[in-house]
Batch of 3 targets.
Target 1
Amino acid sequence: MNKVLKKVRGRNIKSNFKQFLSVIFIVLLATMLFSGFMTNSFTLKSCVDNYFTETNLADLWVNTDKVSTEDEAFFEANTTKFDKRLQFETIAEIETLKINSSASIYVYEGKVSTPYIESGKKGCLIDKNVAKDQKIQAGFHDISFSYVVNYQGTDYTLDFVERLTGTMSLDERANTYNSWTVVIDKELFLERVKEKLAEKVVGFDENLFEGIAYNQVLVKTDDAMQTSTTIKNYYDSGATLSKLVYMHGREEVESVKLLNEEVEQSQKMIYVFPIIFLVVAVLIILTTIDQLIVQEQKKIGILKACGIPNKKILKHYSFYGAILCTIGAGLGVLFGLVLIPEVMFSRYGMIYSIPEDYIKLQIPVWWLVALTISMIVLGFIVAFVRCYKILNKNPIDCLRYNLTASAKKLKKRKKKFKKMPISLKMAFRNIKMKPLRLVMGAVGMAGCVALLLSGFGIGDTLSKSLKNDLGKVFDYDISSTYNKSDFKEKLLGDERIEFVEDYSRVYATLSVDLESDKVYVYQIAENSKIFKEQLTGDNVCISKTIADKFGLEVGDSISVSLKDKSVKLVISSTIETSFKNGVFVCKDLEFEETFVSKGVWINTKESADSEKVAEFVNEINGTNTALTIEEEKENVKGRIMSTSTMTKTIKVFGIMLAVIVLLNFIFLILKERTIEIATLKVIGQNSLQISIAVFIEVFIMAGIGMILGMVLGVPLMILILTVNKIELLNYIISIKFVSFLATFFIILITIFAVLFVCYLKIKKVNMAESLKSVE
Amino acid sequence: MKKEQLIFDERYVGSVAVEHVSKFYGENFEVKALNNVSLQLFTGQFVVILGASGSGKSTLLNVIGGMDTVSAGSINFAGVDITELSDKIFSQYRREVVGFIFQFYNLMPNLTALENVELAELPGEMLAIDALKAVGLEDKADSFPSELSGGEQQRVAIARALVKNPKILLCDEPTGALDSKTGKMIIKLLMDMNKKKDKIIVVVTHNSAIAECADRVLKISDGKIVSDETIKNPKSIEDIEL
Ligand SMILES: Nc1ncnc2c1ncn2[C@@H]1O[C@H](COP(=O)(O)OP(=O)(O)OP(=O)(O)O)[C@@H](O)[C@H]1O
Ligand SMILES: [Mg+2]
């Protein structure tokens, strides 16, 4: 008997293959997302941690005017490890490739914040992503730039042409995809400087040369707070002649901040959307397995009539649920951890130059085991509960299942059905017979629609947020920094340019009472044509996000400070911004020049092609910092990659789920009604006539699901965005009517596609065979 | 308190006593499928139940076979009231005591003929293949129900009942869907099964010709037994025209 039961099981799997496949597929999708994003998050975290540990990322960056021998002795005594560095910004060029860019050049030994050499060897290294993007080859291309050295009280501008020896990634500049990072070995640089001085200065004496003026010290320490105080005291005490310019910790290094935020975002991803997906999937799994067992009712009846003990039947059917979920979860976990980190890391790799060596797949084994087991238990329980319910009936009721169920439920409504066309009547009666299936199908559809809609909504929110800042709050065509004095004249000389407006930006500390935070202060022209809010005189406008963070209102005063300089300001208005958050004033607050970055906003004439104009701006500026507003949007989008990836995944998976839910619903119906369909065919109805009854049922189910989903989609989107909040961007939540339409039509198309499959299936039903079939 | 064990009193093995059994349907129990039925069945008997459609024949068979519960009354088999049995023992009763043959066969569609019979195999009793041989279907052992004719399917169902050598064999219109020749063969099979006179065989039928070869004929009307005749010299199955 046991042997035979096993056979029943095997053959049931065969005959219910499609349903089983859809259960497996749903379980697979859900677990795949979960396991994938979880593995991705763990891998990313370990990768980032690894990166910063292995390369000895500095804890403190001490910027001074010059590092003297006394200073070195001080650092030797007070830190775990330190490295002095020369850092300067310059325009670098690779002549053979006709490209140039502003570059950050770092000259040091590399004991702290060691550059990770990707290819080639120490000497003159360039960021690997830049090299790849610009097709720069180490060992083949020369980089040229100039540097000013002091010898015997005179400044000499030295022109360097240096062969690149390798590519690298520098931990503290891992996110620089716009400007170049070049690390030059200390010894090599010193040698070159001496050579060039010897060429330039007649009678150059090496012994009289004071060496390179290092302007930065990278410090490793166990207690950054403590050490920074010690350092500050040292400079304040007058024990050294050099001056402390600026000191900061890791929290102000953008690449560290971004990578950490990326890790955080990847962790949130696990909790938000795979979980939501999991919930939807679980609902669908519940329905499907439940319906599968319900369909087995007659077989259960026969088994019972043969006197097979309940326990055995129960075991037998619960096994279904369990085995399906085991296969699905197993495959899902596997695919997830193979595919998703792969995809995510290829995208991370475009934004950050992370050394590939540090990317090691971290599999959260126990989480995944727990996930798999819970899916299996879920499948088991659903099957068990449903089977248990059926077993409680008398065997004869199981055998007569279809008849008894329909008769009871249909009796009372007879009159209402009288005038309806026969297909509609049939559809309604079928629904009446199995209302639970309709409800569960609708819930599944609602989940899919909600996912899809929230996917669109997140997209809308992102583009609205970007458009708000770039286009509404700031309305320019091109923005650029500049460093040449005749830059503006040249710009205005071009006929394609309508007007140019200056602005400057400072990263300063905003403090209110005891709270403080770093913010950007924009110094904008009075009555700016670019900035939406008109500012005059003492007017101060502040981003809503910042105002909310500090609990500020119009009329409140704030202070903005940088180094020794502190300015008191009174807020006169607030403005909603998304990522260009800051304090906006229309006068020069007179912060120290070196910290103020100057730029221009350019509006082109209508007829002009802003991309071409931007190229022209770069040409006269000698940098490639000019960006059109569209390019700037793309940049921001790149930085919020996780969110946009999520949007796409949600949409795709939403549609996939919808297809499965619909197919599943239809297959269940068709399977149950093969005989009915064959009978109708015998009577002389054509396939389309027969299909219509099924179509109506599907439409009612999907319609209810759609309405529910549309209603649920918006809160779902808000939920996802709230949980997935990021520093970079303040979401201005919005959803367009078009998104509702798009969701509606995509689902509608999906429905029609699936109905077509259904129609083909009905067409294929063979009368003789089906009517003979005992099922 | 439901009984947890199936212990038969040996003295009574071989008799079924239906006592004041009623079965009602409908919200207000307005349909009386069985209305206070009492009767006793004895081992060795070949009982035929006749009655108009809807008179309660199937219902009676179902309650005796443990396929359905009763609304009132009790059914005793070998001194055990089966209406009092727990679910577990109830299925043991169905498995070990009762063989059931349905009008529409009720075979597992996804098992072959042999496997369908194996489903009911009991340790120490006949082998499934022998049961199939007995119904003359050993060459169709590996066919699925959908590959068998109606008569063949019914014979598989009989083999399935036969294989466990049941004390009670209940057949609900076993020939209803078959032609007379096949029907005759089925009835003969059933009668042959009782050569040793160790079973109670109950056959529900519309066909009064079958009644001619029965030991006992019960007539049911409106849920009540209206006549109960014992036939001294039943005809041989060969002599009747179905
Ligand atoms: N599940 C049910 N719900 C309501 N009434 C029922 C149900 N099952 C049977 N009945 C009623 O019980 C009565 C007896 O039914 P039963 O199936 O025993 O008749 P039968 O004698 O076997 O008829 P037939 O010869 O047509 O098979 C009938 O009137 C029938 O309408
Ligand atoms: Mg009947």
Note: The CA atoms of residues 251 and 257 of chain A lie 6 Å apart.
Target 2
Amino acid sequence: MALRSVSRRLGSRILNQRSFVASLHSHATSFGFQEVKEEEKSKLVGNVFTNVASSYDIMNDVMSGGLHRLWKERLVGKLSPFAGMKHLDVAGGTGDVAFRIYDAVYSVKRRALQKVDEASLEETQIYVCDINPNMLNVGKQRAAERGLRDNKSLVWVEGDAEALSFDDNSMDGYTIAFGIRNVTHIEKALAEAYRVLKRGGRFLCLELSHVEIPVFKNLYDLYSFQVIPNLGELIAGDRESYQYLVESVRRFPPQERFASMIADAGFEKVEYENLVGGVVAIHSAIKL
Amino acid sequence: MYRTAAKRLLAGGGITTTRLLRLPKLRSTIIPSSYTSGLCTSSIGGNTESPMGNQSVNPNQSGPTASSSTGTGEGQRRHESRKPRAEFQEEQARVLSASLRHVPRLGWTEEAMMAGSRDVGVSPSIVGSFSRKEAALVEFFMDECLQLLMDRIDSGLDLQNLIPSERIFKLIRIRLEMQVPYMSKWPQALSIQAHPLNVPTSFKQRAMLVDEIWHAVGDGASDLDWYVKRTILGGVYSTTEIYMLTDDSLEHRDTWAFLDDRVKDAFDLKKSIQEAKYFAEDIGAGVGKSVQGLMNGVMQTMSRRSGGSAF
């Protein structure tokens, strides 16, 4: 009798683990709505971004009607950057978020209002990490256009979100904007984020997410599947990449599930905020 | 009050689910707030709900102790040597407490909180996650002072031998003396508390303070209404607090004299209101025993008068 109850408990635990692992692996083997081998996924994603790199920013503007700028502003606002912080922006290839953080820290108005120590200003380091060198090149180009080419605060690093080359407990902030969807193993990326953050460091993730509001959901689906791939064809000349994009959004875990994954990685105070009814969600957490 | 009680219930109920053990904390803090595109017309109701969940230090404490023990159980399943998890509320309290030391120099600002976080050994990023940042520091201080006051009262303050007005004087004086080290930056704290976003919490804290003082004074032989009592005491407290801002006298002697006068005024006011009440009751006794009788009497008198002038 004891044996039966033990085996039932073990069985249910194994079942839980297997279903848990299965649901994670479904993300690892999904390339949009296609099923692919795990090893191939990162290569396929790599191809997507190599193809779209040059028109990435324009397509963002067109697809979101310019809203992506507001979303990124909100993300950086939530982060509250400060002078002297060490920040890591992962999958931030073209530098949108990094430039905003830079501006927030170095803005003259802010410096006048708060007594900012010039020395600590110098210590500010914003690392932009991306797995795709093409995206990084676009970012470096944009930096040069802003006159920040040789600025020591912005550091462009090529790297994999699942295996970061940074030290443990070295970052005050970690952001990933529209990038975690493309990672093969989400939980590895989250574990790496946990590893590199200092105690008290914040994790912020801006990502396309799930809409639940009834009528709006249908409109959104219509827009995603009918309009966006056509826009991709028209403007970037690449229908498949944008088809992958909208499909990958559907395969990504919904807000609550993702929040629990973040909590499982060890983070505290996991919260999320829906923007535009759930089209985009900002998940935030703290490492303690 | 009902909200915090409900959250406590939710936190307690959530512990029993085995799969997502850390969700009890999530349930009290995940408030998905919807924003309309671009306009950012954030619902203030949605905003004030999460600060209430984070700011009030007491209600969530039933959750953490249970979840941390179940958390270690789950931790053993996967990873043996994970250090005990610090609860966010405790960490926030530690940072805010350490920040208070920097307030006289840096003011009630993010810089003070970042300096405090460095003292505790936590990245200053954590300050970015406090809701309504500077207000968090001020509210923490107000809560601490209230707690200190309650401790002083419980540890045997000699109130029995004093008449009510003297008791009130003593309690308000004790409470205001706690603010003396921060007096140079107190105007900033007051302006932070007056900010529309922060008014609900600061009002609630002041109401609790006034309530506590009356409770310690004991109701005494007063016939005044509950609300009127607290309003008057709130008025006395606030005016003295503001007077104290510009008081340069030695050991704030002038402030205490001011306070004494105000407390006496309040009690005189009470007496004169009481006299007015007796007078009104006497009139009421003439036309009937109840206040309703008085009203009717007044109405009758008025209608009689107007009827008379028509002629």
Note: The CA atoms of residues 34 and 248 of chain A lie 10 Å apart.
Target 3
Amino acid sequence: MPAENVVRTRGVTKVFRLGELSVPALKGIDMEIKRGEYISIMGPSGSGKTTLFNMIGGLDKPSEGRVYIDEVDVAQLDAYELAWLRCRKIGYIFQTFNLIPVMSALENVTLPMVFAGMSADDSREKGVALLSRVGLGDRVHHKPFQLSGGQQQRVAIARALANDPAIVLADEPTGNLDLNTGKEIIQLLKTLNREKEVTIISATHDLKMIDVSDRIFWIRDGKIERVERRADIELEVGTVEGQ
Amino acid sequence: MAETGQMKVEKQIVLPMFKAIQMSYQSIQIRLGRSIITIMGISFAIAFLTSIFSSIAINGALLTKGPEYLQARLSGGVGIKAQQIWLMSLSLLVCVVGITNAMLMSVTERYREIGTMKCLGALDSFIVKLFLIESAFQGIIGAVAGVIIGNLSMILISLIKYGGIIWKVFPWLSIIKTGMIAIFFGVILTIVGAIYPAYRAAKMVPADAMRKDE
Ligand SMILES: Nc1ncnc2c1ncn2[C@@H]1O[C@H](COP(=O)(O)OP(=O)(O)OP(=O)(O)O)[C@@H](O)[C@H]1O
Ligand SMILES: [Mg+2]
């Protein structure tokens, strides 16, 4: 079923109110993302990438418009259904890793499984397997502060995959990493995208992401400026300095 | 193709209480340093309150049952009632402000964590439960320690001021009574002081919670 829209947005706008001032961060976003795609949302700072990330992930409500995850209108869900969606259907990765500081790598990875009601034994086993998959099989009991940035992001990736989500959302996953570590993380995401057929949507201004993306949404001033397929870009490599 | 219908959104399960207790306990244990600071904040506020209570009780006992020279000395001050009420209100105020501040701090510095937990599928009620249990633990320890510190220091001061005579008239009953009141008051304040910000943080949309402490 490769043709299904796992994410679809219709006329999504977001206006932030700061007292008298209103800041339009998104000005009507329409996008369709198919199951299994690797999508990059690229754009300069302040263009609305994080805001869009939050809308797609059900972490904030649009001012207008609709977001559909697997053709379910997110706005129609009650608190319990929304929590279920965040727990089972979407995995999140952040620029700042956002691991729970007091928990070990394994506990961080198993937390979403705990919320999903999985037994302690099953979740431990699955957590160790996921950590091994991201190359941290020998670091399961380390605390976040005992890990490097790249390792922390690997834990976050393992955690995002905890409940076999349909979508992994990443907001600048390489933003706090050096060039090579960033490359490794991008490569890992790409491999998982192929292996687990998980849809990856990544907001970024890291041009290294272009190589692995199936499509790139260029966004500027809260609007989608253009959508490109990698196949098209490869033909005109020199001109991608879009920012 | 809206009719694909391959996804049925279910409702998130409510986790059992022991899970919340386990996680709160773990959180206090690992955050021990920070937790001790919070507990110290609570216990100093309660110690201040208790010391006022106990000095009033000891002075009162000396005034009614103590030797004459002390009675004369203590009844000398006019408006002692008004002064006591003033002191009690002041100490209550210090206590309320101190504890709510300590709890507010301990919750606000964890907004990001709260937002993250919501991303991972935590229900609002679970987050509130976590903080309720954690603050109850801290409240009990802090308040008991505060009552002990407050009473001991007041007894010491009275001993220095009036000498061993205070043991003859020592108001055990009212010291115990006010101690219990102070513990109860401290625990309630601690829980309320944490629940209110935790409730607000749990209600926040995750996007806002995670922006809070950049
Ligand atoms: N909670 C908020 N309150 C007010 N304004 C906001 C809020 N969140 C975002 N904005 C504004 O919306 C616009 C888009 O912000 P957003 O964070 O989505 O940009 P971004 O593309 O992610 O930028 P960056 O690459 O720097 O992360 C900015 O002008 C920002 O100031
Ligand atoms: Mg951003």
Note: Chain B touches chain A through 35 residues (CB under 8 Å).
